[in-house]
Every structure is written in C-alpha cells, then in structure tokens.
Design goal:
heterodimer; A: 115 residues; mainly beta; seven-stranded mixed β-sheet; B: 112 residues; five-stranded antiparallel β-sheet; 0% helix; globular
C-alpha cells in the first residue's frame, strides 16, 4: 500500500462547528486530492493540490477549504459543518498528471457524520 | 465536460461465471480511462487503465477491459468470477490527468 494516512478515521461533529481532516503521505508525490464519496454519486473531487501552497477547486468545493504547507500534508477544512457534508472523505496522491505516471493511490478514508 | 455512466448499480454473478461491468464515457477529447476496485471499508485500488495504444487492457486479478471508441465504452470483464471479486467497482475518465471523473459505482456480488 502507498504510504497514505488519513486522520481521523471516524468523526462525529455538530452542525456549525469547524472540522479539519488530515492526509499525510510518505511517498513524496507532488499531487494530492480530496474526494467525497456518497451513495449514488460515486467519488467527487473537492479540491486538489499540485504543489506546496498550490491548490485548485474541484467540482464540489463549496463549503470546503484546503491547505498544503508541506509536501507530505494536505488538510481539508469544513469551515462550518452542515449535515449535507456527512460523507466518507478520501485522500489520493499521484506522482504526476502525465498519464503514463498518473496512478492515483487512495487512503483508507475518513467517515464524517455531522449531526 | 466529461462524465461516466456505469450501467447497473448492482450485479450478481455465480462463482465461475463471466463478470461484465459496463462503463460508458463522455469526453470531448481522447480520454484516459480507468477501473478501480473498492473493498469494504477500504480506499480505491487501481485495477487497470487505458491511455494509448492497445485497446484491450489487462489488469490485476484476471480483469481486463476493452476501449471501444465507436461505442464510447470501456467495459470490464473477467472470464471466471471468484468469491474474492465481491467489491464495488468504479470506472473513471480523465483528459488532462489533473481531474478524474468517477462513475457512481457497481457493486458486484458473487454467489457461491
């Protein structure tokens, strides 16, 4: 398995509270991604990063922010959690967007419940 | 815009039978296509990918997929299902490689 650690693995929080999820990698890959997985929707990209301090939005970025101050860490923050953000969140990493090298490796996921 | 459609959210096959999971894509440029597998409470693992070249792609665990441009399809097959193949399977498409678009997934059940 690629060296990807997501923390926490499970979290229950209340509506309106801020929440930060962490993704830590030991592969020194340049690209990191945050997805959410919901029944009937598959995986949808929230944000991604293409280098330290370089990030961009995905298709479902509203209500989320990210930060990457080090190559190995990519943080996802829910500024004010809502029940619609109850989901399973996956971090992924890849070496390069060049397709020959673009294999995305996924973490084990964080299950977030917003009550 | 790109999108992926996986026909059949649930597929059941008998052990030893052919597995066929369907994926159709929409892309304005030549696509890169992927199949991932997800076992319960785990992240996704790459099964196989098509970039360029040979349209029949072989992956891990005996799976293969064929890129058919005329049909905009990338169906996943395995000649003989094994109990360990029970999982959720996702098809994905990308053009630039920066963003992947995933299908909604197909849950495969293998009946002994």
């Amino acid at each position: 398995d690629a060296g990807i650690t997501q923390s926490p693995r499970h979290k229950v929080t209340e509506t309106g509270t801020p929440v930060t999820l962490r993704c830590h990698q030991t592969e020194n890959h340049r690209y990191m991604y945050w997805y959410r997985q919901d029944p009937g929707h598959g995986l949808r990209l929230i944000h991604y990063s293409y280098g330290v301090k370089d990030t961009d939005k995905g298709e479902v970025s509203d209500g989320y922010s990210v930060s990457r101050s080090k190559t190995e860490d990519f943080l996802l923050t829910l500024e004010s959690a809502t029940s619609s953000q109850t989901s399973v969140y996956f971090c992924a990493i890849s070496e390069s967007p060049m397709v020959a090298k673009n294999i995305q490796y996924f973490g084990a996921g964080t299950r977030l419940s917003v009550l | 815009a790109q999108s992926v459609t996986q026909l059949g959210s649930h597929v059941s096959v008998s052990e030893g039978a052919l597995v066929l999971l369907r994926c159709n894509y929409s892309s304005s440029v030549p696509p890169y296509l992927f199949w991932y597998v997800q076992y319960p409470n785990q992240g996704l693992q790459l099964l196989l990918k098509y970039t360029t070249g040979a349209t029949l792609v072989k992956g891990i665990n005996g799976f293969e997929a064929e890129f058919k441009k005329s049909e905009t399809s990338f169906h996943l097959t395995k000649p003989s299902a094994h109990m360990s193949d029970a999982a959720e399977y996702f098809c994905a498409v990308s053009d630039t490689g920066n963003q992947f678009y995933f299908g909604t997934g197909t849950s495969l059940t293998v009946i002994p």
